[in-house]
Amino acid sequence: MPVVLENLGKRFGEGAPVLDDVNATIGKGEFVALLGASGCGKSTLLNIMAGLEVPTSGALEVPSDGAAFMFQDAALFPWLTARENVELALKLRGVGKAERRTKADELLDLVHLAEAGDKRPHELSGGMRQRVALARSLAQDRQLLLMDEPFAALDAITRDLLHDELERIWKETGRTIVFVTHNVREAVRLGQRVLLLSSRPGRVVQEWNVTEEHRTDAGLAGQLTGVITARLREEIRRHAK
Amino acid sequence: MPSNPTPVAEEKPAVLPDEAPVSAGSATGSTKIHAALTRSSTGSADLRELESGLDSLQSDAIRKARVDWSRILLPVAALVVLIIIWQFYVSLGLKRRDQVPGPMDVLEQFGTLWAEGSLQEAVWTSLQRGIMGFLISVVIATPIGLLLAQVAPLRRAFGPLISGLQVLPSVAWVPAAIIWFGLTDATVYFVVFMGAIPSIINGLISGVDQIPPQYRSVGTVLGASRFQMAVQIILPAALPGYLSGLKQGWAFSWRSLMAAEIIAVGGTIGFGLGSMLNQGRDLADMTIVMSAILLILAVGILIELLVFAPIEKRLLQRRGLLAGSTR
Ligand SMILES: Nc1ncnc2c1ncn2[C@@H]1O[C@H](COP(=O)(O)OP(=O)(O)O)[C@@H](O)[C@H]1O
Ligand SMILES: [Mg+2]
Question: What's the CA gap between B104 and A171, in Å, rounded?
């Protein structure tokens, strides 16, 4: 099992715990959508899995080589071209100079950006930047890929396409993906499993399986979306004064 | 496996066993329809085509860079207007001609100074010192700035002092420098260093401060070591702030140099623009004073236009930071 979270808890300073008793297991090659309202601790949980933060209680098991990470805003380095951004990830991983260029071009081609390698981030559209960021995180060559609301800032047309794109790349590369989102539709669209995180404290309160039929049958997917939305709202209502 | 229940999706609204059932079956059982997302493209080739279409729609067409004549003509026109106003004011005859000389008088003085060779000597001496002093300041200030930006206790300790030094006019160091070093070049350089070094350090520190925190997170996630982080990420990310620190550092070098040259005259100190200014005062010759002021200004403007402006423009353009500015 690439990821096991056991009774994981996190608090910042003396404040109320942000995460409390989080339990989850994520299998190899699985695509898990982590769903929750804004501020419920999704990013915190993902940062803990990435090793950017340490949990205050509980135990976690992640692959020993760490995880690849994709941020909400592409976070590409503006002084490097698209290709150089991907190459930097390869370089920091210790890939030799000669191999870097070919590998970077392969990865850019995988995200359908073979032509844009020499462009700088500001010359790319939001969707293209996210694809470069995806290529960069694939360049890390880690089994586990963590994605923190990577498509939240994109327009709907681009986002729909990137959903298809991400699904294709997931199938092609066999990565284990944890995809954080606050969007129920997106979670149902992408995840094989949807984990719902409650707010204050964050805890996995329920999970749903999404089958292959949901990918093509809008009625079925709509029904599941409704169920999850209702559960999410119930969770939010608990905090009403 | 976690203890969380895993209800099958198609079933009616699932709830945790220890919680009350969902109050209103807003999904199933009601007529409410939730829009959902499904696979929308028909395959890899279709996807590639769609994306390529979207990419070309969303990328700007490359704009051809043309020479923008207004950039050259407007400043020249402004200069001409100022000279005409100057000449007009002088021809009104409100002040004595030796106190307020006209543009033609100053031009004539330029000619004389040029023929004597003292104009070239003054510009060359000052420029050489200014540039040397500035370059040495850069070499001293850069590692100190990086160190202060990265090591919090050091910065707490020395930060206020360095900000303070930046406010202190470097002229204030001239008397001390003369006592320590006498009327030598060392005095001039010392004053230049005290002017330039603090502002370069401050520029670099604020450049590092302005780095989006996410860049460091990306570096960490990508597995950068401390050294790789500093060289591959922090330094290039801080470059715009560093460059404006350098620009300010140059301005401070040049100003401090003039101050030092005006005050410290004689000894082994050569003849620079500041010395020329001082000479004009001693001779009570306003045309020399005006010539010196215009030369000091001209050197400042030329260095900005020929050295810093192109570097800055290129740097910002590559990072897409120039759009919408009125440059
Ligand atoms: N470094 C931090 N220090 C203090 N509080 C934090 C920090 N990071 C996040 N939080 C708090 O933790 C909560 C969860 O944040 P986050 O994980 O970003 O939520 P989400 O990604 O689900 O929107 C928020 O209330 C936020 O204020
Ligand atoms: Mg977040």
Answer: 80
